[in-house]
Design brief:
149 residues; 17% strand; four-stranded antiparallel sheet; 7 strands
Length: 149
């Protein structure tokens, strides 16, 4: 299996994971210029947060959203493991180690065994065919028809 050099995914239809049609129809998407995969990059109007700002259930799922963070910050972000009081692990994207350390300081009920990114692309690269926009109805339908669902 070959990983996309731009968006770090094996499948060009790996996202969105939940509410595919609604997300593709209503949210701005990072459209990978290399493989065509869409990654939700929409900011929630109420809380001003994006999907990349929330924890993920696995490192693999976090990797599917990492390129959106890299693109927004124009820097390689990292995925960090966070452990809750109940020992449940989650994975969250941060710009750097300092932001991760600050998050842990502000969330006393969470901790980490490793204080460095488990995954980070080496450098940030721009790709000329990348687009960030809402998809047309036809594009949504084509994306869903090719998703294997």
């Amino acid at each position: 299996m070959k990983v996309c050099i731009e968006c770090y995914a094996v499948s060009n239809r790996a996202t969105p994971l939940l509410g595919k049609r609604e997300c593709l129809e209503n949210h701005d998407q990072y459209i990978c210029g290399t493989c065509g995969r869409c990654i939700c990059i929409q900011k929630d109007s109420n809380r001003q947060l994006r999907r990349i700002d929330f924890p993920f259930k696995s490192l693999e799922i976090a990797q599917l959203y990492l390129r959106a963070a890299d693109y927004l910050y124009h820097m390689p972000c990292g995925i960090y493991e966070i452990i809750s009081e109940s020992n449940r692990k989650s994975y969250k994207i941060f710009l750097n180690d300092d932001d991760f350390t600050e998050y842990l300081a502000n969330n006393k009920k969470k901790y980490a065994k490793k204080h460095y990114a488990l995954y980070r692309h080496v450098y940030f690269e721009e790709f000329s065919k990348t687009e960030v926009r809402k998809l047309s109805h036809q594009e949504v339908q084509a994306y869903l028809n090719n998703s294997g669902d």
